[in-house]
Every structure is written in structure tokens, then in C-alpha cells.
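Predict the holo structure. Ligand: pyridoxal-5'-phosphate.
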Amino acid sequence: MSIVHRARPEIQALHAYEAAAQVDDTVRLNANESPHSPASAHFRRPLNRYPEVRPQRLQAAMAARFGCAPGQLLVTRGSSEAIDLLVRTFCRAGYDNIVTPTPSFSMYRHYAEVQNAAVIEVATRAESDFMIDTTALLTACDDETRLVFVCSPNNPTGTQLARADLVGLIESLSDRAAVVVDEAYVEFSSENSAIELLDRYPNLVVLRTLSKALGFAGVRCGAVAANADIIRLLNVVQAPYALATPVVECVEDILQSDQLGAAETLVASIVTERERLQEDLAQYPFVDKVWPSEANFLLIRVADSGRLIEHCKSRNILLRDFANELRNCLRITVGSREENDKLLRALDTLQGI
Ligand SMILES: Cc1ncc(COP(=O)(O)O)c(C=O)c1O
């Protein structure tokens, strides 16, 4: 059964924005655009014209890439925008809530707060490697829960949610809430994308991005994949012309070229580096724990995270402090072999913590 009846009623009642018609080979006097195109030389489409309201070719290409029908996908400005769209579409301000395990990606809370939706957090435990307890997530859901965000592999812990647990969660929530699986790091993991479950579960939403494994964070492009009814609602909420012409053309080119094949080879090398770094980090006396990771980063606990981070910073290496959420924990992104070597050399000179 569809989940769209759980969306905000005013969004269900809205129609998509009606933009000025865009027809090739016509005299276009319907959109108050300039007739002059001063800086279009680098692009196939003229920059004096608005882009398509939704980039159709790009949508089809991304759907083919991620393995769903074009109608099951909306192209977004990174997966961050998809989180925002979902919260604004489903959560009534001041009434509804999202449920999410913690620690996890902070944007779920951020966008929920922007929308004045409540956030119900279900803590995972360091002692059990931050395993996500789907029974606890289900228990935390109430009548006002609209979205359950599960990041898998999870940022910052690197934890993968087992497929059977995910399916159990989706089936249990059925027509009550959507399960949003954030797969920003799925390319680094041993699990297939949950997109293959879309046809079976109308309350499943999957977020994908070009920012991580594929190496295009600067382009700001991602996608939300879901049942076509959900995509229609998100389409109503997303700004018209959200994807700029340079971005659309850049991503079209990326998808057609062999750049993604090359990126996949690089993923394998990052996974190898992750394993090397995991082993090497564990050797330092001040490293207390390196958690297993299915992503392109490692969460570690050390004797004094503040000192370690400062020490690396003084050698021009930036690490991400998580001490506010997890005592003495920090997250290290797996870099190139040279970058990781530089980190290890810096740690070799760290004494007295
Ligand atoms: C789990 C997770 N989801 C989504 C994002 C957002 O990625 P983007 O907006 O670049 O697609 C990030 C970025 O760090 C992330 O860690």
C-alpha cells in the first residue's frame, strides 16, 4: 500500500509548478529570458535559457545507472537536498517526527529542525560495534513518525545494516512510515543497493550520491529513488529548475564517459587502503579501538582525541572530531596511499598520550 497518505495533506493537494513551455526551434517569448547568450561557448545548451524544470535525459541515465525506472527517481542537488525534500514533504511542522539511530549523519536532525519536526534518536552502542537494532527503532516509532532514516553503511561508524533486518523494518512499518536508506557509501560496502527492493516495497526510499565513491562532490548531484507516487510528491516540493545547465551537462558527460568505470577501480583501491589503515592504526599504543567499516572512513577511539587531532593539524592533516558524541573518538577518511602514509608518519611522532 502506498505511503503517500502519510505525507503532509497540503503537499498531497498541490500540483507541480507549471513552468513556461520549452519547445525546440520556436521563438521563445514566454519566459522573460534574454534573447542573447553571452557565455554559452562551453555548453551544448544556451545559458540564456532556463534549464529543463527536471532534466529528463539525466533522470533516465541516472535511473539506468542505479537500476530503477526513470519514474522512480528524482535527480537532486546532492543527497542532502533529498533529505530536506523528504522531511518537508512528509513532516507536519510541530506534529510529526523522524526516527533515526545515533550516532549518524547530522543532516537528518538538521533538516528535521528546520521543518520543526521532532527527532527521536535510538542510541547504538560502541560495545556492539554500533549495530543498528531495528526492533528498538520500531519500538521508538509512534503515530506521528513519518520517516525512519537509516544510513547504511553508517556515517560515522561504518556499520552496515543487514539486509534481513532492513526488510523486517520496511515490512513492519508498511503503510505507517517510510524507511529512508541513505546509501551515500554503498559502493564501498559488500552489500547490494536496496534499490533492488523498490518494486516490492512502496514505503522504501533510497538515497544515492555522486559525491563519495564516484568522486564528484563538487558537482552537487545525487538522487532519491522510491515508488513513483513518492517521487511525484517530492517533485512538487523541489524547486523548479533545481539542476543548473552546467551541472546537467557535466553529469550527462560523466555518465556517458568511462569516468565511472575508473571511479569503480579507485573504490577497490580505497577499500584496500581502508584495510591497511585499519591494521596499521590498531598497532599504536594510544589507539584503543578501530571499528570495522564498510565505508571510506574509519572511526577510532584513542587515549586523547583532542591532542591527536591537534598534532595532525600541526602537520597539515585534518581529521574529524567526534568527541562531543563519542568520548575520544574521531573519524579518519581513507585517502590516497600517499595521504595515508603521511598520516601514519605523523602518528609515528606522537608521544605521551
Ligand atoms: C551519510 C551521508 N548522506 C548524505 C551525505 C550528503 O552527500 P551529498 O549531499 O554530497 O550527496 C553525506 C555527506 O557527507 C553523508 O555522509
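The two ends are 56 Å apart (CA to CA). Residues 78-80, 105, 151, 155, 182, 184, 209, 211, 217, 222 surround pyridoxal-5'-phosphate (CB under 6 Å).
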